[in-house]
Design a protein that fits this description.
The chain has 443 residues and is an all-alpha fold. The chain has 22 helices and no strands. The chain has one domain: Up-down Bundle (Growth Hormone, Chain: A), CATH 1.20.1250. The protein is 79% helix and 0% strand. The two termini are 35 Å apart. Its main location: membrane.
């Protein structure tokens, strides 16, 4: 079909490597987030009583504060030494920490050491996630033809819904083949341990990909920055913040499913079957995947910012119907709600890699993209499940959560009016001097 036909063999290998790595990274990240709502409250934080679920969700958010650190370190190294090596390192870091989470004994066996170990390993996941996305996105976009960057950049993006699909699928399978007691005792560990297999596959795929041609040109001309964070903050600080707000608006909404809130609410409040809910989220992940690719493709046709605005409008318009259908506790309506919920997410996620890459000059591009992404994750997704749980508990209605997410979406929509669409700008040659951009937040 037209959407994929123009991607040649070399570029298919690149986008596959970017997609495979982010898929594995986010599979690892999401099985923790989903397990926080379904398992960890009882296995690691039960001593806290009624606050166990809130603290369990809070451990999902703690790792987000370490994403900017991972982004700064990976951005510095990626802008100095290249994208490829950093992508292999972040993959290993995430995979090993995930396997170890699957081996941590419960609080009943080792007491307070259990939640402490869990949090430490979650922090390592946060460091890895902070550095992964920027490298994967730039590898895809910097290899892409100028008129296909939106589509190519959408491939590392779909690693998120694929990771969500695999995470929910693995947990649903584990729940289906075990009794509820067995699942809580040991069944939930199986998806974490399976991450070892995914690490090996990811390393084999990424090891075959060449370095970004844009970075190679910078290396040849010796125009790399020795401290990329300094010119980034000095000359592009406003852009970093605007990029963070754009992602925060997407991320807060997305973390209703990726952070485990919807799964927990549907199972524990609406009393729906755990496996059924996980299967419903898997269906929505497919819709998210498709809409993300469509968003990337449309971004090449009509521009990145226009697609963002359409996506935010869809998010906003579907917010109240989503929660109304969720509260019916009807499985069919739950699936419908989640599928349409995912359309806005995909349209505000598909263009992101291309937009971020075109926002920054090459010498600070990894740092800029990674830090914007990491800050957006902190502002949007970090404590979105915790905030949602607290709002619902304190008000007694999910419509308070609806208001919170609508507010975040409006902030993202507002930010689109301050970011210039630079679709198709040559990444290697059209680098405006930093001094001339310092006072232009939309440049």
């Amino acid at each position: 079909m037209r959407l994929f036909g123009s991607i040649d063999r070399e570029h298919r290998r690149v986008v596959l490597a970017a997609m495979a790595g982010t898929t594995i990274e986010w599979y690892d990240f999401f099985i923790y987030a989903i397990s926080a709502g379904l398992v960890f409250a009882t296995q690691y934080f039960a001593a806290l009583g009624k606050d166990a679920l809130l603290l369990s969700f809070a451990t999902v958010g703690i790792s987000f504060f370490f994403r900017p650190i991972g982004a700064v370190v990976a951005g510095h190294l990626g802008d100095r030494f290249g994208r490829r090596a950093l992508l292999i390192a972040t993959l290993l870091l995430m995979g090993v920490s995930t396997v170890l989470i699957g081996l941590v004994p419960g609080a009943g066996s080792i007491g307070t050491a259990a939640p402490v170990l869990l949090v430490v390993l979650r922090i390592v996941q946060g460091l890895s996630a902070g550095g992964e996305w920027g490298g994967a996105a730039l590898l895809a976009v910097e290899h892409a033809p100028a008129d296909r960057r939106g589509l190519y950049g959408a491939f590392p993006q779909i690693g998120v819904p694929i990771g969500l699909l695999l995470a929910n699928g693995a947990l649903a399978l584990a729940a289906a083949v075990t009794t509820p007691a067995q699942f809580l005792a040991w069944g939930w560990r199986i998806p974490f341990l399976l991450s070892f297999v995914l690490i090996v596959v990811g390393l084999l795929i990424r090891g075959r990909v060449a370095e970004s041609p844009v970075f190679e040109e910078v290396r040849r001309t010796r125009s790399r920055s020795s401290l990329p964070l300094v010119p980034l903050v000095r000359h592009h600080g406003v852009l970093v913040l605007l990029g963070a707000v754009l992602f925060a608006a997407n991320n807060a909404v997305g973390y209703m499913t990726t952070g485990g809130y919807v799964q927990s609410y549907a199972v524990k409040t609406l009393h729906l079957d755990r496996s059924t809910v996980l299967a419903a989220v898997m269906v929505s992940a497919v819709a998210w995947l498709v809409s993300t690719l469509v968003g990337g493709h449309l971004a090449d046709r009509v521009g990145r910012i226009k697609v963002y605005r359409i996506g935010f409008a869809v998010q906003l318009l579907w917010m109240v119907p989503f929660f109304a259908l969720l509260d019916t506790a009807n499985v069919g309506l739950l699936v419908l709600a989640l599928v349409l919920f995912s359309v806005g997410l995909g349209l505000t996620y598909g263009p992101q890699a291309a937009l971020y890459a075109e926002m920054y000059p090459t010498r600070v591009r990894y740092s800029g993209a990674a830090i914007s992404y990491a800050l957006g994750a902190v502002l949007g997704g970090a404590f979105a499940p915790t905030i949602a749980e607290a709002l619902q508990s304190s008000t007694g209605t999910v419509y308070s959560v609806c208001a919170y997410l609508a507010g975040m979406t409006l902030l993202g929509l507002l930010a689109t009016f301050f970011v210039r669409d630079r679709r198709g700008v040559p990444l290697r040659t059209a680098e405006v001097p930093a001094e001339s951009r310092a006072t232009d937040p939309t440049g």
